[in-house]
Amino acid sequence: MYANVAQCEVLRAYRLSAQSLESIGFRVPRKRPEFFQNDIFPDTVDTEIPAIDTQAWLNGDPASPRLISLCPRDMKPLSEAPPEVVRKRVAAVKAETETDNTKDTISAMLNRVDETDEESEKSADSGSDWGD
What we know:
This protein is α+β, with helices and mostly antiparallel strands. Helices cover 31% and strands 14% of the residues. The chain has helices at residues 54-58, 90-125; strands spanning 9-16, 21-27, 44-45, 67-68.
């Protein structure tokens, strides 16, 4: 059995146990699996049809390998797919707003700390009433 390229399966292996023989598929997780993933399944050499006939090979004629596409007829390649529409979810927008509010809160707190430090330095420079 071959790997199922329509399911982004790149390898098929078999595990033999004392009671059974299991087929295991190794799949590549993809964001848009409804399209043929031609970046991980490029055109490949056709091993069923010879690239050159016997007589031409005996004469020493050069031949280039025949390439075939693994793309199933009912699938469109990812390279020809329309661009993906990115939609922000309400939760993501809310999280961004909360992050901005948190940044503002932290900035305000840091400003207060800086002001307190400056006031402490001024009072230390003017002398202290503690030792009098």
